Amino acid sequence: MINPRVFVLGLLSFALFAVLVPIGSDAQGLKDPVEDGFGRHSHECSIATIVGAWGFKTDGFYLPSGALDGYAVGIFKIQHNGTMRGKYDTEGPGGFIPGLVIEGSVVVNSDCTGTLTLQVVGANVTVTQSLVIAQNGKKILGMMQDPTIDIGTFTAIRLDEDD
Q: How far apart are CA 142 and CA 131, in angstroms?
């Protein structure tokens, strides 16, 4: 049985990676620049902005007590229908665990924010993460939404960039 904390850490890592690093995406899903309310122009986003292959890493996950839960690194792919699938390795106080599989779904808002909901295959824990799509869809920043499970952030980068 997979440790629920290890599962959450992996999910967070996968979520971040998926949002920040699409692979093989032909359509960027970017629209005309719009005013972002801070005097800057930004692009609107859609699921097409992040479709593709991604690589991700966590910046460390911590238990609600403040103790380190672990780190993770992995890859994932986001489909046009908003589903995602990937795998990651994690290491923490419980040791190194390679090849954990994650599945989930992504919702993207036009302001380039969104959510990633995922689950480690074989574990009975669902994790939701807040996302920000950055650098015109080349990077994803994420954060856990449920501090009763784990506290932490992740970064994902696009793996299939053509330019």
A: 4
What does the pLDDT look like over 9-47, one tens digit per residue?
554 444 444 444 443 333 444 444 445 555 544 579 999
Residues 6+ apart with CB under 8 A from 135: none
Q: In the chain, how many domains are there?
A: 1
* Single pTM value for the model: 0.73
Amino acid symbol at 66: G
For residue 100, give the CATH number of its domain: 2.40.128.120
What kind and span of H or E run contains 6?
A: helix 4-20
126: buried, middle or exposed (CB in 10 Å: 19+, 13-18, 0-12)?
Answer: middle
Q: Is 69 left (phi over 0), alpha (psi -120 to 50) or beta?
A: alpha
Q: What is the pLDDT of residues 94-109, one digit of tens each?
A: 899 999 999 999 999 9
> 8: domain range?
4-158
Q: Is residue 163 part of a domain?
A: no
